[in-house]
Amino acid sequence: MIFLLGETAAGREIAAELTFRGIEFRQPAFDTALETDQGLNLTDISLVIDAAHPGASSRLNQLRSGCEQAGIPYVRLERPATMLPASPLLYPADSWEEALTRLAERVEALQGSSRRPTVFVTTGSYQLESLVSRLAEKARLVVRVLPEGRLVQKCQDLGFSPRDIVAMQGTFSKDINRSLFKFYGANLLLTRDSGAPGGTDTKIAAALSLGMEVVLVKRAAASQGFALPSVKELLAWLESEGFPDDGARRQIR
Question: Model's pTM, two decimal places?
């Protein structure tokens, strides 16, 4: 059984390709994956594919170590970082915590020119709690998440009104992003570097074309272990390794 991690565009693409090929797999919610991480219940798992957000993947270190000890291949999808434009409106951050600090600074700076700045958030539902606790009273937060009931419910539980929840599945073109940012009157964009396939370049381009400031959570340093840079190469590797198989575990070459 293949264990697929990641509620991302890449995760959805991999899931669709595995389904098309008739390959059996499980794709748990990230919180469920963390429970597996803590309990290391690796029964019947022959391969783990980690397509989680770069910032979230670091929380799976215990699972990665457990797979290594059990001889279960663990493959990380690590797309190349986005080439960032030179702009005084772009504020890269090396971590989520740094991004929140920088975002809070920019919100405070904008409060003089805008009664209540609007932040358009495209980092998904992961770590929303810390964002809300830090900035909900200082800015209007508009969040874009996948159109899944549990994610919309999570946003509502955190205090988001229905008008501030954009439930859509990307990736999105520059024009679509621009239209959404303009419709919500956004002053700031908070996003992660998910690479060009994740639409980071079009989000940044759309925001800058409107004069919005952008706080970007940069990619973490490349993780240890076996990694591939694209879904295409990952699928080719699966085929070359003979997955699916009878469940036998092997060492990654």
Answer: 0.73
